[in-house]
Amino acid sequence: MIPRVHDMGTRTMGLLYYLYGPGTHEEHVDPHLVAAWDSLAPDPGRDPKATYGDLQRLLDQPVMALPKSARPAEHVWHLSVRAAPEDPILTDKQWADIARRMVAATGIAPEGDDAACRWAAVRHADDHIHIIATVVREDGRQARIRQDGARSQAEARKIEVDYGLRRLNAGDGTAAKRPTSAERHKAQRQGKERTPREELRETVRRAAAGVASEQEFFDRLAAAGLLIRQRTAPSGDLLGYTVALPDDRNEDQEPIFYSGSTLAPDLSLPRIRKRWSGSDTSHGSDTTTDRSADSTRISPSTARRRATTAVWQTVLVLDQGDDGQIAAHLAAAGEVLDALARTSAAHTRRELRDAAWAFERATRSHIRAERGHDRALRQAARDLVYGGPALGRGEDGATTAMLIDMAFFLVTAAAHWHGKKQHAQQAAAARQAAEHLRAAYQAAAPMPLAALHQRGRRLSQPLRHKQAAYLRQAVPELAEQVLAEPGWYALAATLADAESAGHDPAALLAEAAERRELDTAGSISDVLVWRLRRMADLPADASSMPEHTTAAPAATRGTARRATKGNDRSGKTR
Length: 574
Fold this sequence. Notes:
The longest helix has 27 residues, at 394-420. Among the domains are: 2-163, BirA Bifunctional Protein, domain 2, CATH 3.30.930; 194-289, no CATH class; 449-544, no CATH class. It has 574 residues and is of the alpha+beta class. Helix content is 48%, strand content 8%. The protein is elongated. Strand 4 and strand 5 form a beta hairpin. The protein is built from 21 helices and 8 strands. The strands form 2 sheets. It has a 5-stranded antiparallel β-sheet, sandwiched between helices. Strands 6-7-8 form a 3-stranded antiparallel β-sheet. The chain has helices at residues 12-20, 52-64, 92-106, 148-163, 181-189, 196-208, 214-223, 260-263, 269-275, 300-320, 323-343, 346-359, 375-387, 394-420, 424-444, 446-457, 461-474, 479-483, 488-500, 505-513, 524-535, and strands at 2-5, 32-36, 76-82, 119-125, 128-134, 227-232, 238-244, 258-259.
């Protein structure tokens, strides 16, 4: 159940016209009163003798009783309360009880207070009610309604339990603004999956992924097809921006613009500027000097390899960093997911888009991000964008699977961190993102792993026995489980590739498995394949590697080069 306190108003009649009217697009059905401060309050919806003016005059009576100079400029209080889509349809009697609980909890009409404010609850849809009240009490004092939003949320959590409704996580005021009912109805009529507000939020987030200057940001918005208005000070300094979809128009056929801050708290221009405040480029710099935008364009597979290393480093920060560093890395991780979703092949794009959409909520909390620590991740997002669209096969497809594999560990670690901090909504969002990444991995991995599997099956028996001996030497406690997995053949081929490249397979494997909680992985061999191929700088696509039919020569160059030191405690089931 979602309560929402709206901005205070000045005209009781104006709000009544909306609540009892047809709605912006005829979405209001059978508007009627379900509860009020007085059981005899007139109901213009179902009583043909009652008028809006009758109800307005009664609601405003305590306000009008004050001297004109003592009346508050804004006296109309408005709360909407919405059930979740999967909740059962509540009766008018149930909504009446919910309305009474809400006005009591918020301070509008505390239980047993005979001098409380006047209020009315109007229902014009199955799934929600609106409560209108005037904040001047019967005794002439103004209601104490500070923290009314937080108190309505706390009461909603109790109502969910009492009525057996979907139980939502407590918010902390950092979530993006939800679409209004009018926006949702409009999207439904037009057959759109998301409202314009949501489409704009996703588009602006993608445009901000890895961006290094204002000009680059606005160029990306324009390239995405958005209409843009910039707000400037008399001095000419840029203060903010608004955006609109070309086909989203009001009844006068004018585009409907949204400011960045109304799309999400971190999409205002000042907040976006902070993303590059710790980098080497300022908001006035020329981004063409950046290596990712250079004339020698980075390839999609190289961008994914670099991103995998940056994500790996972030997993270590989540284990060992302080809160400010972690908050910055999580915000930048959202940029990486946005960039990955934007540039991946069709068969993984939907799940990656949903993962980025879900993880967006996990990127914001009240912990202040210490920008600058996230430079590697932001550069990774930038590389992905400038690397361009990846194919779903070959090295592009295989490195996509590798990056998704590591991104899964990251969002799982993020869920754990948010859980420890009691960030309920953020933890739930990270877990939801992990499920979408799991599905994306299952779409991306079969082709490259199948090629490795076939190469592993074609290994000579002596060479395969040699790789099994390396496995038993490196991880004796997990060896038999790995040998029984279907993915063992892909791991055997990877160990042979690593040995041919001059690495010590046993040392490399021990390093990959060290303190990683591999016993909780759904497929230990899959996890080890991608870690080994990243650590040893092996091509992710097996087709670019030579076949091994005889035992490879002993390693001569020691252990693998490590992209970074530390451990990963985030290995989870895929």
